[in-house]
Structure formats: structure tokens, C-alpha cells
């Protein structure tokens, strides 16, 4: 099949794609290629949205979400709100390969990573401190917890927005607008020449998130999903909306019933849009024949990066 292997990832993260191609051609497995490809983005801090030093939460801390899934065995490892460890996708792989559990979170995921030999370090950078300071000084929201209270100093009310008050929606809206261009998780799917499939995601999530927030990226069927004999899908965008629909799972099930990847992606995005017409999100899908597709809602165009043997190189395609 001249269309295999196929390596596809969200956004124009070409270096990550190239690394995955290289890993596969050097004899690595689909899991090795996913891990090493996604690691490139963690190291390069792709778009500031992957890896350390991006998307500081309301306390100024960067935390990471990541997952990896093996189509052959249906094994998954993932981490949510991982603190103080840079290589989230590798920690996720360790969860998959060294435990019978699936998802570890927060400081306790850090403890696991430390036991597995990962370096524990501060994920802040000068840039993330600057982003946080600017937010605190300029964009800090008024006190939505108690909207009747107006403080002379807005900084007093920059704490977590624990309460979903009536004003919460406008808060969310503003946040979505602010962060619209700051949603660049890498999600990658690979089908190799033998039909082996794997997927992975890694991200630092959402700027100014409430501390403790976990997005869609480490959630099976949301961030990504693969099924043996069928294919895989991965998501990027507003995870707080998207995870409510398990869109990657939905794309794979649609492909299983014969839909093309592009149609399956469109169907899943349209379904979300029927509830949330203004959500921002995108999906990619690939089937075991090597057909691939993608699409975005609110991101237009939505670029993805693809390699297969009919393409000379890792190529950015606008959907
Ligand atoms: C999240 N879905 O944490 C991620 C962010 C993202 O492209 O995809 N950015 O909500």
C-alpha cells in the first residue's frame, strides 16, 4: 500500500512529523515514533502551547497534559495536570508500560515520574512569568465569584473562579476570545506499513486555567483514540467543550461504519457545533488504508502536517 505508513499531526508542527518519520524509518515502532515526534514539540515548546514555559495557570504555573495509546493492545497511559516534569508524553508512556493503570494526575503524577527517573524541575520561564504578569496586571477578570463586588484593585480578584455564577459565561467567553490563538496542542496519529496504529497528544493546555484543570488531551476518546483494524483520530481546540463529546472516539466509530476520515471529522465537529455554535476546535483522522483527513470549526484554515510515501516530505495541508 503506497499510502502507508501515514503520519499525521495537528498544526504545522513539521519538525515533530519529521522526527516521527525518522524514528519509523530507523526501525522504531509506532509508539516510539509517537513519543519521539511529540517530544520534539515539548522541547521546541511548539507555539508556546506544548511543553514547559507556556499557558501559565491562574497561579502562574505551567502544567502538562499528555496521553499515548497503542492500537494493537488498546493500552493507554496518560497524565493530567502534571507538575514539574517537562517530558509529559514520556511519562504517559511510562504509565502505559510500567503500570496497569491509565491516568495519573497532579503532584502525585510527579511522584510517579520521579520514581521512574524523570527530572523534576520548575516549568516556568521568563516568558511564562511575563505572560502571567501581564494577565494579572491587565486582563485579570473582575470578581465573578461575587459579581456584585467591585474592588478598587482588580488584582484582589484574580483568584480561582470556583463558582459557576451567572456571570461565569461572560468570563468564559472573554477567556475563549483571549485564548483563541493559543490552542495548539500536538495530537499525532500513525498507521505503519503493517497496519499498526498509535496516537498521542501533549499540551500545556489553556492560558490562565484554574489550577487543577485537566483538558481533553489526556482523555481517551477525546484527545485521541485508535482502534485496531479501523484507524485513529486526534483533537485540538477548546478542550473544555470538546471533551464532553469524545470526538476522537466518534470519528473512529464513524470511519468504522465506512465514512471517510474527512466526512467523519465534519460529522463530529457539526455535532459539537449543534450545541456550541461558536466553539473552536479541529480534528484529524486516518484509517488503516492510509486515507486521512481533517477539519476545523472556528479555525480556518486549520493546518495539519502529513507524511506518506507519496509525499516527498512532511507536508502542511490546510483544512
Ligand atoms: C486543551 N485541547 O487543553 C487543549 C488545548 C489545545 O490546541 O488543543 N490546543 O483544551
TrEMBL record:
Give the reaction(s) catalysed: N(4)-(beta-N-acetyl-D-glucosaminyl)-L-asparagine + H2O = N-acetyl-beta-D-glucosaminylamine + L-aspartate + H(+)
Q: Where does substrate bind?
A: 213-216, 236-239
List, from the UniProt record, the residues annotated as the active site of this protein. Answer: 185 (nucleophile)
Identify the species of origin. Amphimedon queenslandica
Query: Gene Ontology cellular component?
Result: lysosome
Q: Kindly give the SUPFAM superfamilies that the UniProt entry links to this protein.
A: N-terminal nucleophile aminohydrolases (Ntn hydrolases)
Kindly provide the name given to this protein in its UniProt entry: N(4)-(beta-N-acetylglucosaminyl)-L-asparaginase
Single GO molecular function: peptidase activity
Q: What InterPro entries does the record point to? A: Ntn_hydrolases_N, Peptidase_T2
Amino acid at each position: 500500500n503506497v499510502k502507508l505508513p501515514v503520519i499525521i499531526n495537528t498544526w504545522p508542527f513539521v519538525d515533530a512529523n519529521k522526527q516521527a518519520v525518522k524514528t519509523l524509518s530507523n526501525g522504531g515502532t509506532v509508539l516510539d515514533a509517537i513519543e519521539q515526534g511529540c517530544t520534539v514539540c515539548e522541547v521546541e515548546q511548539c507555539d508556546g502551547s506544548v511543553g514547559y514555559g507556556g499557558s501559565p495557570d491562574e497561579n502562574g504555573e505551567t502544567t502538562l497534559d499528555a496521553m499515548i495509546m497503542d492500537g494493537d493492545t488498546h493500552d493507554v497511559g496518560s497524565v493530567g495536570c502534571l507538575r514539574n516534569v517537562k517530558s509529559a508524553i514520556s511519562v504517559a508512556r511510562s504509565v502505559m508500560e510500567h503500570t496497569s493503570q491509565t491516568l495519573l494526575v497532579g503532584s502525585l503524577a510527579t511522584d510517579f515520574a520521579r520514581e521512574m527517573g524523570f527530572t523534576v524541575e520548575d516549568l516556568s520561564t521568563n516568558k511564562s512569568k511575563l505572560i502571567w504578569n501581564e494577565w494579572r496586571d491587565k486582563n485579570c477578570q473582575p470578581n465573578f465569584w461575587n459579581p456584585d463586588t467591585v474592588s478598587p484593585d482588580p488584582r484582589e480578584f484574580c483568584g480561582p473562579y470556583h463558582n459557576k455564577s451567572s456571570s461565569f459565561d461572560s468570563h468564559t467567553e472573554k477567556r475563549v476570545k483571549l485564548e483563541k490563538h493559543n490552542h495548539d496542542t500536538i495530537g499525532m496519529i500513525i498507521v505503519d506499513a503493517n497496519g499498526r496504529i498509535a496516537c498521542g497528544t501533549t499540551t500545556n493546555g489553556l492560558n490562565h486555567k484554574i489550577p487543577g484543570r485537566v483538558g481533553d488531551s489526556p482523555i481517551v476518546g477525546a484527545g485521541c483514540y485508535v482502534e485496531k483494524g479501523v484507524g485513529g483520530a486526534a483533537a485540538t481546540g477548546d478542550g473544555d467543550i470538546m471533551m464532553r463529546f469524545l470526538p476522537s472516539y466518534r470519528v473512529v466509530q464513524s470511519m468504522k461504519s465506512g465514512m471517510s476520515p474527512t466526512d467523519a471529522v465534519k460529522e463530529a465537529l457539526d455535532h459539537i457545533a449543534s450545541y456550541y455554535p461558536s466553539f473552536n476546535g479541529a480534528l484529524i483522522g486516518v484509517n488503516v488504508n492510509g486515507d486521512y483527513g481533517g477539519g476545523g470549526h472556528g479555525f480556518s484554515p486549520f493546518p495539519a502536517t502529513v507524511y506518506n510515501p507519496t509525499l516527498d516530505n512532511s507536508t502542511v495541508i490546510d483544512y
